[in-house]
Every structure is written in structure tokens, then in C-alpha cells.
Design brief:
about 475 residues, alpha/beta, Rossmann fold, six-stranded parallel β-sheet, four-stranded mixed β-sheet, 22 helices, 12 strands, globular, binds iron/sulfur cluster
Length: about 475
């Protein structure tokens, strides 16, 4: 069941303490190191990670710095190719546009490729409420749709599920006769069989996009299963749902991004399928949709672009920051309560929803710095998280007692003599309290922190006090 980001603390505690979530942690614990190793190995090849990173950062910053211009170029090129381009200010508008297209074509069945934007807008629920049958066709998305769950990772939606979980799910949901789906190959074959029929029967295909190319009006999609191509080419109507910040000036820019995206995501040198969609089929084409629509979502991205958080829009949705984050690894993706988990989600969710409703996410960080180190788009995630904490304080989202505590600390830090006296006194008291057992197990305002760890008893005097004494002061 989808939780809300405001429940993060509770959900993360439950996920960490709950024996039922141990399977999820085990699945992540097995998979994440492999993904990390593969990425390191692939980057050990001829291409230089730093150089590629600098190139992609420059491309993304240039595209975002001239976003209106490139969106205009993309729109006119796509329209020349015969596609329709729609802009949606928010999730409801995107859903309404898609519903309207589906209704105009009297569609019944919809085949969907993986799209985080449609997760963001809740498109499936809107389509189903209007009576359309929607089938997710990415294998991971298909599994979680069958399980009535939400994605736990932006690249691998079902990464939290083990092979045994998936087998059990298919045995429960599918009419398998004598087959017992003994191995992964059989499970994939079963999913393929079901999905083939969905592709052939679909009236509308909906996919996402990794990049929109301003110079020619094409969109680029990267997949490992080829389901995106089947969604795009078999149904008569294709709808590409993406966000306004995906636009890049040239096809060569998309290629540069692709070199980093795939390696950072799965550690592959190249993805199995990289497709460019140019619009509806032209006279003489043997396949392809007869009608193509692009629906471009803003949903606060223009505001983010104009804010101090603009760098977050450089994100290429590779998922590397999740794979390296110790908080994500332990809490799991569902604890974050919305579409985007991990470090990138802890920044994006407050910006796309509200800081009040996701106030704990900027604190879900150990400040280890791994996310920034591995981010192919060079996004300073720890800095952005710290800035969000500052915003929380300034906007009084932080609880009053913490704000008072921080104000007192800041005031003391500006008065060093008093600060030293107070810390000398506090340390002396803590030393007396804890010297018998060598640890302190209770401390005002630190109950949560001490629940899971012991605080070693400090020395009788602070370093500063000892230093002053050694100087004879
Ligand atoms: S923030 Fe960086 S590492 Fe994380 S998903 Fe985006 S591009 Fe990848």
C-alpha cells in the first residue's frame, strides 16, 4: 500500500525492525553491491568518468538555462513531424489530456511502458477509474502491478522482490495448469506470453522518454526489454508522457547522456534497446502509430528552475544515488512514501510536493557523500539536502523545540567564552553520570538517537579545557 512521505520516520523504522521486511533488505543487500561493482567495472574501460560527467553536466546546464528556447524548437520540430504536443501544468492536467485522447479513440485497452512521470501523476488510477484497462509491460512494473504495489526503485521497480516472491505471485495470479515456474527463465516466459497478447490487443500505447531532442522533434527511450518499442509501434495511438526538463538540444547530446546513463544505472556498456521515436508513420512505412502525442509535464519544475535548487533538474534518473545510499538500502524505497526514493527523492519530493508533507526526507541522510560522488550529473545532493533543512528551519516546519535548541546553540557559538563554560559543565555532568558503566543510555532530546546506540562516557574535561590548562591559562 502506498504510504505518504510524511510517514517516513514511522515507515523507515518499521522497515528496519520488521522481520517481514528482512526479505526486502536481503534482496537489496544482494543486488546493490552487484550493480555498484558492475558500474565501477564498466567505468574502468576507456571512457573517463570525470570527462563524461563534465560533458553531461555542461549539456544539462545549457539545456536548462535555455529551456524555453529548446522547448519551442522541440515543439515546432515535433509538429512538423506530424506529432501533437501538449503541455500540462500539473498532474491532473496530464491525466486529463491522456484520458481525452484515449476517449476520442474509443480505446479500451492500454499498454504502458515504464514512466515515472505517470507514477507522479497517478495516471493508471485515473485511467482505470474512467474504465480503461491498463497493463504495465515493463517486467518490473508488470510484477508490481500484479502485486498491487508501487515501484521501490526508479530504475528497477520490483528490485525489492525476490525470485521466490515473484514465483508465488505468478502461481497465485496466473492460470498455469501443471507448470510450477521452477526458474527465472520460466517466469519471464510466462510474463512474455501474457504481455504479447496485451501488446497486440492495445488501442493506445503510453511510454516515457529519457530525452526529447530539440533539433529534430524526436524522443529517446532506453529499455532493456524492448517493451517500449512494442508499446510505441503496435497500437495505433502513441502517447509519450514526460516532463519539460527532459529536452536536449541535439541528438549528439542525447548520445553523450546515454553513455553515462546506462553505465551508472546497470553497469552495462550499452542498453539492449535505445529507440528514437520520430512521430506517426509516414506513407510507405510498414509499421508505427498512426497518431503520436507528446504530453509534457511541468508540475513545479519551472519554479525549481528559478530557485536555488535548479541543479536538481540535471538529474538523468539513473538511480545510482539510490544504489549507494545506506539509508535507502536499509529503509527500502517504499518508506519514502512517494514516487522518488533515495537521495534524489529526498530532494525532489519536497520540491514537487511540499516541504511540510515530506519534512523528514531532508534528514534521511548520513552525510556520507556517496550520492554526490557517483551522480553522473554532478548534482550536489548533500548540499541540496542541507539547504532544505535550512528552509525547514526558516519556514518553521522544524518542530519548535528543535528550532529553539538550534537558536540557543547558534547564540552560544557566537559567544565562545560562555560556550566553553556551558560545554565544560555539560561534559562534567555527563562524565559523572556515565563513568560507572562507561556509556550513557539516556540524554534529554537524544532519546531516538540513543535508542539504537550507546554514547561513550566523555572524558572529565573538554579538549579545549585541557588545552587551556596546558597553556597555563
Ligand atoms: S541524482 Fe544523480 S545519481 Fe541520483 S538518479 Fe539523478 S542523476 Fe542519477
Amino acid at each position: 500500500m502506498q504510504q505518504h512521505s510524511r510517514d517516513f520516520l514511522q515507515a523507515a523504522s518499521t522497515a528496519i525492525g520488521d522481520p517481514e521486511s528482512a526479505g526486502t533488505r536481503k534482496a537489496l543487500g544482494l543486488l546493490m553491491p552487484k550493480l555498484r561493482e558492475q558500474a565501477i567495472e564498466t567505468f574502468g574501460g576507456s571512457d573517463d568518468f570525470s570527462a563524461l560527467r563534465a560533458e553531461v553536466k555542461a549539456i544539462r546546464q545549457h539545456a536548462l538555462g535555455h529551456l524555453a528556447h529548446y522547448l519551442e524548437s522541440f515543439t515546432s520540430a515535433a509538429r512538423e513531424n506530424g506529432s501533437a504536443v501538449h503541455f500540462a501544468r500539473n498532474g491532473n492536467e496530464l491525466n486529463d489530456i491522456v484520458l481525452d485522447i484515449c476517449a476520442r479513440h474509443e480505446a479500451h485497452r492500454i499498454a504502458k511502458g515504464k514512466s515515472m512521470i505517470t507514477e507522479e501523476t497517478g495516471l493508471n488510477a485515473a485511467l482505470e477509474a474512467a474504465g480503461f484497462a491498463v497493463r504495465e509491460t515493463d517486467l518490473g512494473e508488470y510484477i508490481i502491478q500484479e502485486a498491487n504495489e508501487t515501484p521501490s526503485h526508479i530504475v528497477g521497480p520490483a528490485l525489492h522482490k525476490s525470485q521466490a516472491d515473484i514465483r508465488e505471485l505468478f502461481l497465485d495470479r496466473h492460470d498455469l495448469g501443471e507448470r510450477d515456474l521452477a526458474d527465472a527463465t520460466e517466469m519471464v516466459a510466462e510474463a512474455r506470453q501474457v504481455l504479447r497478447e496485451e501488446f497486440l490487443a492495445a488501442d493506445v500505447g503510453i511510454i516515457g522518454s529519457n530525452a526529447l531532442i530539440a533539433e529534430n522533434g524526436y524522443s529517446m527511450l532506453v529499455t532493456n526489454e524492448g517493451n517500449g518499442d512494442l508499446c510505441a509501434n503496435l497500437p495505433p495511438v502513441l502517447i509519450v508522457c514526460t516532463s519539460v526538463d527532459r529536452v536536449l538540444p541535439r541528438a549528439t547530446d542525447a548520445m553523450a547522456m546515454l553513455r553515462l546513463l546506462v553505465r551508472s544505472t546497470t553497469g552495462q556498456a550499452v542498453s539492449c534497446y535505445t529507440s528514437f521515436y520520430a512521430g506517426p508513420r509516414r506513407p510507405g512505412d510498414v509499421d508505427g502509430p498512426v497518431e503520436t502525442h507528446f504530453v509534457l509535464l511541468d508540475n513545479h519544475r519551472s519554479e525549481i528552475l528559478a530557485s536555488d535548487y535548479a541543479e536538481m533538474l540535471q538529474c538523468i534518473r539513473c538511480g545510482a544515488c539510490l544504489n549507494h545510499c545506506p539509508v535507502y538500502m536499509n529503509a527500502g524505497g517504499h518508506a519514502y512514501g512517494w514516487v522518488y526514493p533515495g537521495p534524489m527523492g529526498s530532494v525532489l519530493t519536497p520540491l514537487l510536493t511540499s516541504l511540510e508533507d515530506s519534512a523528514h526526507l531532508p534528514d534521511a541522510c548520513t552525510a556520507c557523500g556517496r550520492c554526490e560522488e557517483v551522480c553522473p550529473a554532478s548534482i550536489p545532493l548533500p548540499d541540496l539536502l542541507r539547504d532544505l533543512r535550512r528552509d525547514k528551519f526558516e519556514q518553521r516546519v522544524t518542530a519548535r523545540r528543535w528550532r529553539w535548541g538550534m537558536q540557543i546553540h547558534a547564540w552560544l557559538a557566537l559567544h565562545p567564552r560562555l560556550y566553553q563554560r556551558v560545554t565544560n559543565l555539560a561534559v562534567a555532568v555527563m562524565h559523572r553520570v556515565g563513568r560507572r558503566h562507561g556509556v550513557i543510555r539516556r540524554l534529554p532530546f537524544a532519546g531516538g538517537w540513543l535508542e539504537a546506540r550507546d554514547l561513550p562516557t566523555p572524558a572529565a574535561k573538554t579538549f579545549q579545557a585541557m588545552h587551556q590548562e596546558s597553556l597555563g591559562k
